[in-house]
Amino acid sequence: MTIWSQYQGQAHTRTLSGELHRLVESQEQVATLAYVDTLEEQTLLESMLEDAKPPLPPETSGYHYLLATPFRYPPLRWGSRFGRVHERGIFYGGLSSQSALAESAYYRLVFWYSMRGTPPRNVLRSQHTLFTVRYQCRQGVQLQAAPFDAAQAVITHAEDYTETQALGSDMRGSGVDGFEYASARDAQGGLCAGLFTPLALASREPESSSEWFCELRATAVAFRQQRSGDVQRFAVEDFLVGGRLPMPA
What we know:
Layout: H1 3-6, E1 14-25, H2 28-33, H3 39-52, H4 65-68, E2 91-94, H5 97-114, E3 124-142, H6 152-155, H7 162-173, E4 178-182, E5 191-195, E6 208-216, E7 220-225, E8 231-235
């Protein structure tokens, strides 16, 4: 029996609204410029890369690319917490910047420890954009609340996504357009949300954005806001389970 059927999920749908915080890499243009000699060549290379990507779903027409992109791809090779490998991508974000950065820090460390061989440098630096957008769900679910709170150990499991992916499929099939849930990575107990469709977004443009620098090491991740200089650090120990970094599965 799945979580959705066990707790009669359809009976617990409701309207949801709030603000999502999402962190994305912002170095695409810098990265492509490293491979070419002129701006004209960069434009051509970026056009070729764009053509090689999966087409955007029709329902994302008119949305800012930061809002449309999460729906473009199926999840990663291991899926995502609520998405199977063959399903359309989910727009994930934190309900606070702290939760968004904590989730991102975890996945930066997964990237580090997934490298084959020795990392090329002791520290990897990258640039990111943290943006906000409001969501408005007609059929939403609060997985952090009753009755689903009884299954929190499963919903926030550090690396086994089997049951949460089944839950995601059940929610998607029941017409749910968005959901909230407890972050599995934020030690401060923050919340996250996921949207199955761009129609759950309250606007077609981000509400606000800020630029951040990231430094990734084997022992920690640090994010520094470009304008204010505010620094948020996450030690690898924040994410260890049984002395090891859990890998999504």
